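Quick board copy: two proteins, each given as sequence then tokens.
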Amino acid sequence: MHYPSMQVPKRKRYRIGRFYGLNCRDDAPEGSFRSMENGSSADAPLFRVRRRRTSPEALDGNPCAHLLAIGGTGVPVLLDQSGTIWSGGHCCSRVLPHRLSFSLRPEEAGTTAQVLDAEALRAALPLDGIFRFTYDRDAACWQRDDGGGVIPDGAIDCQPQPGDGDGLEIQASTVLLSSARRSMVFLGGWVCIFPDGVYVNAARLHEQQSLQPDLDYGAINVENTCAAGRLYAVPCDIDGVSRSVIWADVPPDGGLWVDTSAETPTVSAWSQSDGLWKAVQPYIRLEAPGIARGLAAGDAVDFVCRLNTEVGGEDELTDALNGTAILTAAWHDPGASGRPAGTNDYVVLPGLVSQPRTIFLTGSDNSFLTLRRKMPEMDYVVECQNRLWGCRWGGGVNELYGSSLGSFKNWSVFEGLSTDSYRVSRGVGGAFTGAAVLGGCPLFFRADSLEKIYPSAGGDHGVVTVSLEGIAPGSARSAVVIRDKLYYRSPGGFCCYSGSLPVRISDPLGKTWLGPTSAGALGPDYYAAVEDERGMSWIYVYHTETGLWDRQDLEDLYQCLSWNERLYYLAGPGQPLRCIGEALDSDGLSWRVETGPLGPVLCTKRYVSRIQVEGRLDPGAFLRVWGSYDGESWVRLGTFRSSQRRTELFPVFPRRCENLRLRLEGAGGMELAGISWLLEPGSDS
């Protein structure tokens, strides 16, 4: 007699051996994760925990605490919260507009001290902090104990008089006058800080060369007002050498000749080489204390004046000195012993005065002279082709700007030369949302359009407006160039722009809420800190070579600097510097990923009889596996630890279900090589 044999349910093994990062879409491919925290697809097709971040104490010799901005085009340049610029371990103190205060604490009981000369204390205390000084009676000064500075006796009033060896603690505190978000733009060896409009010679600073105020560092905007003393106006040549002016209908023996016989008087000078009188441009040399502070030859300067003179000629000088002129020479007297800085200042500008004039300046509304070098107010500034370029929208202004060639100080030089400044009004309205440089062209974005400038060596720059998906408002710092492509956050998601039209790259993020974004780059990887609906910033990483996305943890990328194959960033103003790419381990990092339903999709019940997680754990790390059956709450399926770094199979035994999702979580380093499972069909119900 033969008994019927039982059919063993057919089992089939499925395996995921390739992982595709974060993909929140319902139709995401198998091998992608619906949710992720602190994961990385950098080693795809393997999945691993991201590397640990570090907090360096110094960067290229610069302190890394309490920073406001970071940047650099060859060497790092750091800006701290006292407005001090650092490069190569050297600093230029308090270059931003600020308020400086001192607190004095004598060590001798019953002694009081107050500041008489704040500039002397400023020179002795270039950095904020608490410093101890000791009084030296023989030298009649206070000497800093660390040898960093000396304060003259007359700069501090101590009662009673200090004795030899008395101690004094001084605390210097700096408060910046503006809390605006700073950005640094580099032109050659110079760094310009916006929106303050301050510049520093970072190349000389890095080489520890002495920096001169108003020459190596200072403000781009200059306003010199001569309101007391005398102003001398002298006719001269282009170099400032005095020349006499003769008004006559016949040629004189020398000097400048103004031919009065002509219908329109012309100014001529004798040319020895040509043997004839040739028309020339006359110039005026203006001499007054402090008139040339911060100015140089080639600067475009606005003159505003109202004058009284000893010998008449008020109208002549007023006509010559009101308006904009290009200086052909300028000299600022650095001063010397017994001679204050600026005493013998002078500037030279095109113009004509009939004779030397002496003008009394009283400071009242009817006797003053003001010189201004102005930079337009701009929303965003970039460097391209040895110029700075900027944009402005608001207050009836809708313009693009370009500085003079090689000069970040001059934005109003218009002489018909290829080196001139640039300014153009645009017809398309809307606030600018960001700026970048790609392919040698400055790009200025609105939310729905782009202004693209084509610089020309001949000075005839072109600009076109392109309608496209631009940078989202509040995401100006998301624009990062990686390998000749621009990545940024648009109103609809993240885009990649290569010069024609942008391509959306954030589809795998699905309906993830994307708020204001700032970003940086580490090699080919795009790091973006994106605010969620609660205002918390999550770091997302886009691997440009594979097109995969990761989500890491809560952190902001307030300012970023890619240098030396690492990404340095600030999480906020006044925060210490952080580094991505220095550490090669994942020690102590908590991580988590969630899969979609394990396939294949069937209409019947099925039984996942065995799950194997193929992974490699670092020593001390652990892996915990959770399962969700048919959308129910998560159930722990197993916990695994490893005492050595090796690839292992972690068996998991789930229960029968229609669909199963997995959550893998743990702490420490982990590499996930595969997930496999045995699937056994079940009944229809």
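And the next:
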Amino acid sequence: MLPIFAEDSETTLDMEAAGCEDRNADADARLHGMGSSGATPPSRKTTPFQVTLDVPLFQLPAPKVGTSSVELTTHDHEAIREYRTSFSKLYHTKNPRYSLFSVMLTVAERSRIAMHMILALAGSEIDRKQESQSRNGEGEHQNARQISRRKSRALHHYSVALRLMADVVGQDHGVEPCRDVDLDSILTALYLMLLYEQMFGSRQGLSNHLAGAAIIVQHHCAHLVRPRLHGPRGSEDGGEGQSQQQHAFSRTALPGSEPHISQYSARLLARLALSDAAATSYGIGGGVIEALYNVLGLHLGDSASLKPLDTFNSLDGYAVTLYRNVWGESYPPAELVDDVENRPVFAFYGVVLQLRFIISQLSKTLLHLTGDAVAQMKALSSVHATIQATGARFADVLAASAKLSLSSDGSHRLVMNLRLVVPHYHAVVLEFQRLTAARQPGLGLDETQRAALQGIMNLAVQAFRHEGDEAMLRVAQPLFMVALETDDVLHREWVLERFEALGRFGGRFERARTFLLKTIERQQVLGSRVDIREQFRLEDKNPAIFVF
């Protein structure tokens, strides 16, 4: 869910179809990296999101031009259907007709870059599903040429979107930010690019895009967010004569007008920052959420100074009526009630993802304070207090999740979201305790760790019973932590079976299972916990590393 600084490097995405005999149909997209800080462009004459492509497009059907001026083929129309139905339901529990993914499609209807990314993402998802079915002997047979044609088309869309994004990032803005940037379109494309790299690309590609996203937040968002979120508020319809649609969306600034950030862009900014925060658990990212903290007037010091409980209140409050403003009178009352009912759960989720960033900062702080036990204990105590405060703030959410059972109605969205979100809090507890336990010998578990493990397993088993493997996509990170920490052999085997089954959703799950098997074996041999952040750092360029 979605869910993000390396030296200049070149990453190759292997787009070869499984079992494909036509080697001439293979394609590589090379993404050039960015500066290690994520704040300034690299010194080389390369641009973030740059790509080179040599892809045969075969004899594709005669295209039709969509409202975004993107030429649509038969494969593209199929991809849009996939995006609006199956794909949206995998990564969002909200009714797909009104979800954030549906709002993105509304933006894409007028945005080339957003439409290209939707077509790239959904086209690649269709290809993944058909390859998986072919390996398992299911579905209609797809020959190598058909697979390569769809793969080539999806990669073509991705390469075009990357070039368009590189143009935005590579502009020389001078002192003032560029006023003719459509932030709704750019943030939509960025969010979908991160999801694309997470699903089909590489850890390095995701890292590159996160660094590019940090630059965009710094250059294009600060002057928009501060006055809109901290200045005088208009009426609920947007103020200053704005309609609901104008409040929800923004276009490029008209001459003489004051540019502003839309509700939609505010929502996506928060999503991008939280995806970036989640990626820090795997040793990448951090630049987007740091940039947004700065934009919101928060000064980033050490991990002890970060207080995530109220960080995004201004963004969340500004965007709270987004769906109602987008859909207007056609937005059903049941959806409004659903939004209100689920708001506390997703507020909890936002804080939990920020805690992952705080813990990643803590790990760096502890390393920096090596030899100063008092300072290390102070840092640990501060972060521990923040985690405890989070649990206290959302005690009702935690209590409600503890009351769920296998018989609880799995079709109720609040129940689904409790089973999705609460395991991530328990995973944060395990991640923090792992940092503490790493300083002690042995693999023992205390009561806090056992309670967290049990909390994850209870909710994951319930979700699996009601929704199957699709639900496990949303709790992959908590399951990953269970496999590393549990001393219950049956629980570990069940989790490893889930990762094996999730392999049909992409190679990152297969890679995660391989990583877990090796790490678990190593921990058992050593009789102590392995520093997985150090493992990720050592294997920084290894394409077998993954991100959830």
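Board note added afterward: The beta strands are 10-14, 28-32, 64-65, 71-72.
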